[in-house]
Specification:
The structure holds two protein chains of two kinds. Chain A is an alpha+beta fold. Chain A is about 40% helix and about 20% strand. Chain A is rod-shaped. Chain B is an alpha/beta fold. Classes of the chains: A alpha+beta, B alpha/beta.
């Protein structure tokens, strides 16, 4: 008994095309018949036209295959049952039991063996098969030269059309959003060109794209032809038969209408798959019913694979070529950094190279709080990018954060530069960003894409294929040329390098810092050593020179006395020699004092400044009296210091004040104390009303032998203030001078306060 | 051999520089002094001389010592300290006669009870004046009856 039922037809007006179960249409195209067997090789389903091949009543649902099919076909089925895994494969074969009828066997996702048997009259001639082989070979050979996807696409469309002679062969490329664009076309001259047209994603819905991956060759031989229903055995519980990989699978009514609206009677498409993703299709249209015999399919599939390989090759070389350039630029920056340039200088100098990595109108690098920019940068880009980096970084586990937009980052973004591609580092405020200006461009759609969705009577939104494919042009504004996957990969790769660069910089800077500290320590040690040596030398030299200088002077003066009357010239000469000898002696003595001030051990104690100033005043009483001067000391405190050396300081200063007094007035010296910035110290001031020193001379006052007075007749060693400074420095104090030419000089210096109060009484 | 009298002072010059001894003798001659001048060039001989130790058993008693500071082996400061530390010599007038004007030396000399500190002048006139004042001061001082 034959029990059969006709599998329910899908509704012709599906509410949403994406949900249409196009892999289980329940019917096949009439180019062949289809049988489905379970694992026991019992017939589970058959197309209603099996009688055309096997004769009426020969193939019954539920019957075992061996009852009806010859041994060779059974063997074929067995092999298919054991060997072929489920999923996308092409276990085509030929030679069923029926003479020359070609066949094809595959296992579907339900574990059923699907056998398809075609009409012998559709068998392909050897000549046309050869043409397809030639097309594939040519495409491979051309591959050596081409490096441009669109060029390859043009070669593909031309070669395929030559081989299969359809009216129109297009290469169709999918964008990331599923919309497609015709990138190459070969057509009959009288046909309207489709090149450059775009098709919205809904034209080839998601599940159709998925089927194109599973089953890379697809043919519709007659859009207007009948379909043949599939009968399923009642015992079968597995639901509608999955015909996803069946060559004969019938076309969805929506697609059928779509093709009819385009005046296409037959179509054939071959998938172009790059990196496991449906990159595009080789889409062939014919105005009349047409089919490519099943023997030719492997050839066509091979052609698709050659095209896929070539396109993948080009895309990879784009990507890896870009990455190679990114690596080269990184290497260049790194080597500059290693050549001891600062990262700051390296980034500034390398900016042009960084910009050139990606086709852009501007670039900006943000690193360690500094911005480096070249070309155009949108206003307020920095804050937006940092914000986007933070947001993206929170959701990404990867250390490199990529942000890219073709319409700006949020509302208010500079609309003249909507393109931004940024890759961040560990810190969201460190990034490199490329920018692109707005590119107002026209997009040609194949028909108005907004007219795809129609509202039907019952109020449900339904999708119906549009009727017009006339070019419909849309102007897109506020958008830049899209960032390609290659460019995004290059940015990511360069971002990684930049992080490496920053890390290297930190390592180098730490090393440089260590070296610098080491170097300074060494210089300080050397300087101290040198200073000690110089002081020792000065001490020894001044000590050893002191006695000869003194004795030469003494003997000269004895000679001058002994010689008595001399001719004036000899007398002048002798007097000059005596004066020079005195100078010599004085300088040597001062040097000796300076050397002693530097080398003699400090004997620290409480020093009552009032006392030592009193002593100095007494000691120079004669000179002071001669000059008619007076000294006033005001509230001088007790300090910590070496009494002898501090007395030398006051003696030198008072001596200077008397020596460099103003010619028109008697000298007046005021010695006073005031609080210093550091509370532990006291600031002393020795102020006179003498000649004063001009601003130009002030900085040199403490230099050895820098005598600032123009008056050469004044005796001086030029070391008095140098000695004072040395002594004060050795006490940890500082000394400075304030002076006004013609008015007087104030010498200031700081000393450490003694804790004890000054003694009472004189 | 005449014993020392208060009219003829006996100077002991302790100085390692022969020139300085010459300068002092020259100055004394020029001021018409009849003072006797002895000299040694180091501190050890100076102490032996003052103590009349070998080889100075027969020298005359010294009235005034002119003591240089900077000398090899034993400095003038050390010699002064030993004189002041020797009961027999402690009262002896010791004039520091040195080229050093260093505050440190001056302070230290007076701390060690130098009788006076005179920086050697470098002008013949001043030198003579210095020697003259030393001579006249100590002539008077030494004419007084010794303190009991």
């Amino acid at each position: 008994m034959i029990r059969s039922r006709v599998q329910a037809l899908s509704s012709p007006d599906l509410s949403v095309c994406d949900r249409e179960p196009i892999h289980t249409p329940g019917s096949v195209q009439p180019d062949g018949c289809l049988l489905a067997f379970d694992r026991a090789l019992r017939v589970v389903a058959r197309s209603q036209n099996v009688a055309d091949w096997f004769g009426p009543g020969e193939i019954e649902l539920g019957a075992a295959a061996q009852d009806r099919l010859d041994d060779r076909t059974i063997e074929l089925l067995r092999r298919g049952a054991s060997g072929a895994p489920p999923g996308p494969h092409d276990t085509h074969t030929s030679g069923c039991a029926l003479g020359d009828a070609p066949g094809r066997v595959h296992r579907n996702s339900q574990g059923l063996l699907i056998a398809e048997i075609f009409r012998p009259e559709s068998t392909m001639t050897a000549e046309r098969l050869r043409a397809l082989g030639v097309a594939g070979t040519s495409l491979m050979e051309l591959g050596a030269e081409g490096d441009d996807v669109e060029l390859v696409a043009r070669q593909v469309s031309g070669l395929v059309r030559d081989a299969i002679r359809y009216d129109r062969v297009m290469v169709y490329r999918f964008a990331a959003d599923g919309a497609g664009e015709v990138v190459a076309e070969s057509r009959r001259d009288d046909l309207e060109p489709f090149l450059g047209l775009r098709y919205p994603a809904s034209d080839i819905p998601t599940q159709a794209r998925e089927l194109y991956v599973r089953n890379p060759v697809r043919q519709v031989s007659d859009v207007g032809g009948p379909t043949v229903q599939i009968e399923v055995a009642e015992e079968w519980e597995g639901g509608p038969i999955d015909l996803g990989e069946a060559a004969l699978r019938s076309v969805s009514p929506v697609h059928r209408e779509y093709l009819r609206n385009m005046s296409v009677a037959a179509s054939m498409s071959v998938s172009i798959i790059v990196d496991g993703r449906l990159w595009g299709l080789i889409a062939c249209h014919h105005e009349l019913p047409r089919s490519l015999p099943i023997e030719a399919w492997p050839m066509v599939r091979l052609l698709g694979m050659v095209a896929s390989t070539r396109i993948a090759e080009i895309e990879h070389s784009y990507r890896f070529g870009g990455r190679l350039r990114a690596a080269e630029v990184s290497q260049m920056l790194l080597s500059r950094l290693n050549e001891a340039q600062s990262l700051d200088a390296v980034l500034s100098a390398g900016l042009l190279n960084v910009r050139a990595l990606i086709r852009s109108d501007g670039v900006q690098i943000s690193h360690a709080g500094r911005l480096y920019a070249d070309g155009a940068v949108p206003q307020q880009a920095h804050a937006r990018i940092v914000g986007a980096m933070k947001a993206a970084g929170d959701t990404s586990a990867s250390p490199a954060t990529l942000v890219h937009a073709e319409q700006g980052l949020g509302p208010g973004w500079d609309t003249s530069m909507p393109g931004v591609l940024a890759v961040g580092g560990d810190d969201p405020s460190d990034y490199v960003a490329w920018f692109r200006v707005e590119q107002a461009r026209s997009v040609d759609w194949a028909g108005d894409p907004s007219k795809i969705v129609e509202r039907v009577l019952d109020g449900e939104v339904r999708l119906a294929p549009r009727k017009s494919f006339a070019k419909w042009t849309e102007i897109v504004r506020g958008t830049c040329a899209p960032w390609s996957a290659e460019e995004i990969a290059v940015a990511g790769s360069f971002g990684e390098s930049l992080r490496g660069l920053a890390h290297r910089d930190v390592v180098l800077r730490n090393a440089a810092l260590r070296d610098e500290i080491e170097r300074r320590k060494r210089s300080e040690r050397e300087l101290r050593e040198l200073t000690r040596e110089l002081e020792a030398f000065a001490h020894a030299a001044s000590h050893d020179l002191k006695q000869p200088a003194r004795k030469v002077t003494m003997r000269l003066s004895m000679l001058a006395e002994a010689l008595g009357d001399l001719d004036p010239e000899s007398r002048r000469s002798l007097d000059r020699a005596l004066a020079d000898a005195h100078d010599f002696h004085r300088i040597i003595n001062a040097m000796n004092t300076l050397a002693n001030s530097s080398t003699t051990e400090l004997r620290m104690g409480v020093v009552h400044l009032r006392q030592i100033v009193g002593e100095v005043v007494n000691e120079c009483a004669t000179d002071l009296e001669d000059a008619g001067g007076e000294i006033a000391a005001h509230d001088l405190p007790a300090v910590l210091g070496d009494r002898t050396l501090l007395k030398r300081v006051f003696a030198n200063m008072i001596e200077n004040a008397i020596k460099y007094r103003h010619p028109d007035r008697s000298p007046r010296i005021d010695i006073s104390a005031s609080p210093a910035d550091d509370a532990r110290r006291v600031c002393l001031e020795v102020r006179d009303n003498g000649q004063g020193i001009g601003d130009d001379q002030l900085p040199r006052m403490f230099e050895a032998f820098a005598r600032c007075s123009a008056d050469r007749s004044i005796e001086g060693s030029g070391l008095g203030l140098t000695i004072c400074r040395r002594i004060i420095q050795r006490h940890g104090g500082v000394v400075w001078v304030d002076s006004c030419a013609g008015e007087g000089t104030s010498v200031f210096f700081t000393l450490e306060r003694a804790a004890s109060p000054p003694p009472s009484g004189p | 051999m005449l014993g020392p009298t208060r009219d003829t002072l006996h100077f002991l010059i302790v100085d390692d520089d022969e020139s300085d001894i010459e300068f002092v003798e020259h100055a004394l001659r020029r001021i018409g002094s009849s003072a006797k001048v002895s000299s040694v060039d180091n501190g050890f001989d100076a102490l032996r001389f003052l103590r009349r130790e070998s080889p100075f058993e027969h020298v005359d008693a010294v009235d005034v010592v002119l003591l240089d500071i900077s000398m090899p082996r034993m400095s003038g400061h050390e010699v002064l300290a030993r004189i002041r530390g020797d009961a027999k010599l402690a009262a002896l007038p010791v004039v520091m006669f040195t080229s050093s004007a260093s505050d440190r030396d001056v302070d230290r000399a007076y701390e060690s009870e130098a009788s006076s500190y005179v920086v050697k002048p470098i002008d013949v006139g001043e030198f003579r004046a210095a020697i003259e004042s030393i001579h006249s001061y100590w002539s008077q001082h030494c004419s007084l009856p010794p303190a009991s």
